[in-house]
Structures are given as structure tokens and as C-alpha cells.
Batch of 2 targets.
Target 1
Amino acid sequence: MTPGRTPLLALRQISKSFGAVEALVGVDLEVHGHQVVALVGDNGAGKSTLAKVIAGVLQPDSGLIELDGAPVTIPSASAATRMGVASVFQDLALCENLDVTANVFLGQEVRGRLGMLHDGEMETETRALLRHLTVRIPSVRTPLRNLSGGQRQAVAIARTLIGNPRIVVLDEPTAALSVAQTAEVLTHIERLRELGLGVILISHNLNDVRAVSDRIEVLRHGRNNGSFPGDASHEAILAAITGAGSPSL
Amino acid sequence: MAGSQSSLREANRALVVDAVKRHGGLTQVELTGATGLSPATVSTIVKELLAGGMVEVRPAVRSGRRAHLVTLAHRVGLVAGVVVGYRQMRVAIADVTHEVVGEQTLPLPADHRPDTSLDRAALLVVDLLERVGVDLDELLAIGLGLPAPVDASSGLISVRGVLRGWDGVPIAQVLEKRLSRPVFVENDANLGALAESTVGAARDYHNSLYVRASHGVGAGVVIGGRLHRGLGGAAGEIGHVQVDPAGRICACGSRGCLDTVVGIPALLEPLRTSHGNLTLRDLVSLANDDDPGCREIVSDAGTVVGAVVANIATVMSPEVVVVGGELAETGETFLGPVREAVRRRTLLNQPTPLEVVPAELGTRAELMGAIVLALQSTDVFESAEDGTQKGSL
């Protein structure tokens, strides 16, 4: 819980362009264990691009990524998973027709020596994970199509915990959820933090962000535009997002 | 699980009841999944429980299809308890026997606004009711707790500045308008006192003092079995007793209040360089994990709070002091120094030493208090007979 001197993940001067579009320009970001860092900003501010760089989906044009102080390259999403970086994107990438267990272990199934699936073991593990996150899903055998938006988000978050990650990236986890479902997801985020993970939370909703974050990083036009403590005022963060009172440029 | 058939059935029955309690309402298919029992066993047990009046089956809609939800039988009606804190909101639905049938916690931002938070409280109540398959009409009343003194007659916060942005907001009316149910607002420490003296650690005593050590410190005074609210509901606001005449200015405007010394910002500040950005829950769990720095902070806070509690206790002479709030979750780390401070006062130890005990309801004391308040404020049995709700506002 004591923040080490070296952050779990550090991005230094990350830049990424798509043709003439400068998505990220010299962006810095640090995440420690047991910390929720929120990335906020307008549409097109570069939040999701940054998330994709961390998740190994996109390669930065320049800049340095450090894990535990050691420079690394994250060439692919599966490499990111191996390095302990798990991500949940907005579309969740879950299968409607499969049950909760199958979704949690999708692509990472536990197999026996003959290549047979260990259903029982996976179910037990899933139950334990959901209980850990204090998720309220009656049965791990429920097909995904029968779950609410909040429960799906919970399944997606539970899935990231397979393989003991150290960093979890959540892209808009509370978008389009009811208040009760938001409450559940925010509680899961608090749990992730208490489990000692570094959490990167991307969201438009300043209320949700300010409820659970230790630090709030504002992106504007692909650049860092302010870093705030979690209890900073709504107005100060909003000003940084919109560029009101920003002396830059 | 060696034993007879009947003890096995007993265990299975407990499994089903537990699952229903945890989820609020479940279909029989979901119950099979939640308990791991066979559909036939679940069906038999549900029938038995139905016959025994333990559960009810209510029509509901699940994933767009009609379904029958098995819920705990709530006789006569339900009440809601809402406790809004500095950084979280807790909502619970309970029946007239104080049995909680649904509960939800929502983390809140610092300095959250009354309009947003009350709106979310209303939505959470409605959502929880839906989860247990009950209409809003069946809700008898709502008890709402706030971390500030509340004037019972006006429903307004009576001390300005204590809860930023909430001054002058007609809190009960705002929520009543949203839900069209009677709403009763009370200070959170008073609710804790109400709960502990009704169903908790102080239920066998007439005079008790409840101390709540959370983001700030508050207390509830129970005299002759009744909550003593004082003028403007401000009785027991021990967070604003002066402990350091040369100290900082408090949110209330006075100097050196107890809250400026043992309020959470004051407790976390000395840990910032060594431990980084901590929350109240981090502090409690680290203290419980034997982190020396955090233990030191918590027990020093106990000493300061204890000295104030000893003075209050000398004035009111309670039979027991109940300590609740998150800091009390550290057990003797916090309670020990409080008790120590009380032991040091001769008067409090004659003829018998004043007991200092942890809250029996733990950090749920305030939420239970909101439920108790809602139940006490409505005439449950009368409304059961004529089928309409009534709140004596």
C-alpha cells in the first residue's frame, strides 16, 4: 500500500499520430499499486488511444513505457496480459451465448493433461472471483444475455483478474449504467484498489471519477492538461478539461 | 456433514434462505444456480418455506420474460434506510422486523452536491425495491441520515458549514417529492445511537452514549431509553468540542474542534509522506494488519476522543458507552485508549467502572438506525389494516 519510489507503470513522453491527427503528444502517466488513476478529457482528447497503447493494441510513435522501472515494449494485447496489464474496453468483448464461467475464462481456459476443460475448477474459481469483488450474480451458469449491464461489466472486470494482473485498465465502465449498477461497478473498482492493483479508470462522468480516484489526470488535445488529487473540486477539473483558464498555447 | 437426513434438509433450507437474503429476490432457476442444489430439492424447499411463511413468491419480469421471484416474506410492508456520508451512500430496504432484504453502497465524490446525491438516493431506493419485487406503494417510510445536526421540525441542517453545499436545502421535502413517501431526516450519530439502543449493544440500558468515529466524530445521547436530540438536533456534536484552543479553524467556524484533530483529513495528513494517499478504509485495514504508523495514528486519536468522551460521560453519567464508526473496526487499537481515558476519571469508575464496548451493529449501526427511525415514525400496524401507508410527519 505504501507507494514505492518506482511506479508500477510509467509512460514517458508518449506520442502517437494517425496521419495528420496528433492523438497523443508527449503524454506522461504514472500508476502505482493500490491506486486508482482516472483519465478524463473531452471526446478525442486521447484517452482511449492512451488506453490502447497501455493495452498493447497500439504502438506509440515515440516515448518510453516502463514497468516497475524497467523499459518495455508492449507489442500486442496478449503480451500486455502476460506482463500483468489487463484491460476492459467499452464493448466488453463478452459472448452473449456463453455462461458467466465461460466468459470469465474465455481464451484462458483451464485444461487438463488431455486437453479437456476443467469445468468444475473454473466454476469454483469464478465463484471465488465474483465473491472477492462482491459481485451479485446468482449463478455462474447464467448465460450472459440474461445479465444486466452492471453484471456484464462485473463479469468483464472479473475476467481481467484471471492470471493475477497488477494493472487494470477500465474504459468507460459506468457508461450507460443505472445508478444501482454504477454503485456496484464503483464498489468493484474500490475492491481492485484494495487488492493492491493499479487501476486506470477512463470516464466522462466526473462524479464517478471523483468518487473512487486517488489522482485525476486530464488530457486535452492529446496533451497532459493538469493532474489533480482525487478530492479536487468539480470546477477545477472541468476547467482543465475544457481549457478554461489554461495558459498553454 | 455427517448427520441424519433431517439435518441435511435443514442445511439445504438454510442455503436457500441465505441465497434469497443475499440477492433479494431470485427465481427458482436462479436459486438452483446460486445454491448448487437440484431443481427438485429447490422446489421442495421453496414449497416448505412458503407453507411456513418464510418466503413469498411474487410475479416479476426477468430478462423480458415473466417470472416468479422468491423473496423473503416481509409482513406488513417495508421501509428504506439511507445514510449519506462524506464519501459514500448506503441504502437498505428492510421489513418491520428490521430484517434487511436489500442493500447497496455507492461511493461518493468529495463535497458531493445535495441535488445529485438525493437524486441518486431516490433512484437507488427504487432500484432496490425492484430487486426484491416490490412496488413503491408498499414502502412505508424512508429514514435518512446525514453527517450533520438536523433540526427535526424544519428538516434543515441546523449548523451552517458542517456539510458543504447542503445548508438551507429542504432535504426531506426534496426526497419526498421524488418518491412521494414520508421521509424522516436525522443526524447519523443519532441514528447509530438509536440503533444500538434499540437492537444493539445498549438495548438493555436506559442511559447510553454512542460515539461514532468516522470521517468526523459525533455522538448520540440516549436518556431514559429515548434519543436526546437537543435544540436544533445538535446534542452530542462532540466533533465540535474544543480540544486545542490554539488549533486550526474548523468547518463550523470555531477554533480547535475535536474534528480538526481527529477528523479523517487530520489523521491522514501525517501519513502522507510515508504511506502516500490513503483513505479511511486503508487506514483501518492497515491498522488491523499491524502497520505501526497507522496503529499509532488510530490509538492517538482514541486517546483524544476518549478524553472528550470522559467529560461528556461525567456530565450525563451513562450506563454504557458504545463506540462505532469505521475507526472502531480497528478494535482495541482505538477502543483501548478510549477506555483508558475513561478509566482515568475517578467518578466514572464508582460504584462500578463505566463500560466502553464496540457497536454490536458495527459500521451498519447508522443504516440500521435509519431503518429504526423510519419504522418508529410510521404506524406500521395501522397502515397494514387499512392497506394504505401513513407517515405522521
Target 2
Amino acid sequence: MNGEDYAGLGDWTPEDLGVPGEVRPVVSAPATVLSRPGGEVDPTAEETVRLAADLVATMRVSPGCVGLAAPQIGVGAQVFAVDVTGHPKAATVHGTFVLCNATVVEASRWKVGREGCMSVPDLTGDVKRAGRLVVEGALPGTGKVVRLVTDAFEARALQHEIDHCAGLLFLDRVAGAHAIYQRKVYL
Amino acid sequence: MNELAITVIGRDRPGIVADVAEVLARLGANLTDSTMTRLRGHFAMTLICVGPAAADVEAALAPLAGDGQLLATVRAVTPDGESSRTGEPYVMAVHGADRMGIVAAMTRVLADAGGNVTDLSTRLAGSLYVVVAEVDLPPGTAEKVAARLASTAADLGVDVTLRPADPDVL
């Protein structure tokens, strides 16, 4: 089994959404919307397409942001955008894409790595994630179900975003009592 | 051989570890287990060492505390025999809006279940409070403990997860 056996993204780009995205404010923890599982969406619905465009627009204006999930802009829905293009820890890169109702099909090669989150701006943490991942989800607009095979940093980003859609933060998966780090130093 | 429990805490500045460690080395105190970390601008050292008498260490550390910026305590403790861990190791993560009593309520649930907290840290970042505890639970109790934690967390308006600690040994 390899990547070629799956229907991947094809030539999908955010421009296929056909609507301009609006930059939305990003919600910070503690916030209820970040802690509740998001609902499944109809990927072909107009509101889902608009949500997808907003996620891409908000992700693009946020420095260092490699992924953004709907709960982070206040919407309890299983939709997220990812783009790890140019990241030094990325290997396989699928560019900018949005998935709806995504699930992990296969996960292996678990590895601990440091990650942060726009919704937890002051902390980072060490989290064990699969370094090789198969994810299935629907593209917004067409609703076409795709399977992505990825690895390294893109795999980590996907797991982080799928967690958001399930109401989980990286804080829920930290490796131990000394695996959380403060970004700001209080003196 | 004396076993001593020493704590040093004070406003953070460069050189606290070196100053304290030098005093201990000079007295022939062998530093065994320790944690030393900065907590919101204060530097805190907790350590166990073996060697000299408690009174000698206390006297040697006194000059460091002379300016009132450092507080040091020394007490003799009874060495514990090695005991093997019988519990199952879990990691409890709690996060939510800061409020009084989160650590108290959540650790009480663990204690009532016979759980032994082996490591714990908390962070306050803005209004977000985070607790991560490593706990040894009596075998077979994790599911019940998780349910009780969830119920207590709901009362407090915070989120909790209980996961098996990473068992990998390399």
C-alpha cells in the first residue's frame, strides 16, 4: 500500500472554494468551544465553504501558523486548514488544503516533539505524535473524499488539527509533568 | 551517613545554583536527587544530599541568605529503602479558567483512589491554568478514577484527561 493507491488532493487549491475568506479572530483557551467535540459538517454546504475560506485566510495572515481548526475561530465544526509549506521539519508537503470530517485511518512511527498552538499562545509542550499518517476527509465544496498519506511535520499538524475538531488541545496529550514550557518569562 | 533535605528559594538571579552547590561541595555533601527551577521569577531548589551534619550545612548556607533575598532550610531525613513501584503510571492533564482549588480537588480524587502523585507541575498563563501530574494508580482502577476526575472537573468547569504514561524503555 502506498500513496499512489489513494485519491489524493489532486489539483485542489483554496481558489477552488470560489469565495474570498474573511480573517476571523482566533479564540484562546480557556474557551468552551475549544473543549467540545465539533460537529460533522456537510462539506458541500455554502456555510462550510465559507468557513473553509475563512480558515485559510486567517491561517495565512497569522505568522508561523501551519494549521487552523474551526473551533479556533469559534465554530464547533470538524473543519481545518493546514499548510506546512517551507517548514524545516516538513518532509511530505501537500500545500494548502482544507479537510472536513477528517479521521485518522493509520498512524505509526510515534515520536515526541515540541508543539505550540495559536489558541494557547503562552505555552508549548512535548507531545507524542505519529510520524507517518493516513488521513481520510472530505474536500469543502465538492465533498470529494480524499486520503492523504503523509509524514513528519505535516503528520503532526494534521493530528493537532484533528484533535481540535475533537475538542482536544495539545495540553491533553503532554508527555509528563515537565513537558510544558512557558514562552514568556515572568520576572 | 546523614541524609539531608534542603530547600533554597529566592528572587532569581544568576549564580544561585553555583553559590549553593559550592557550599555543599566544600562541606563534602554529595548531591543526590534534586529539582531546581524558576517559578514566576523565584528560583526554587529542592534537593537531597548525603554527608555532613544538618547544623553544619545550615551554618554554611546562612551567609547566602544574609541579604534576605534567599531562604534556605536544612533538615535531616531518614533514608528510605528502595521500593519498587507497584502502581500503573498515568499522566493527568487538567486545563481551564483559573480558579481556587483545582489542584486540591483533582489530587483529592487521585488520593482517595489510592493514587500516588510522583511528579506535578502547574502553569498559569494569562487566565489559563494548566496542571500536569504523573500518578501511580492501583492496578485496574484507571477507568473508575478517570470517571471521577471527569465529574470533579465538570464541577470546576475545567477539562481533564487521564492517559497511560509512555511505557517505552529504550
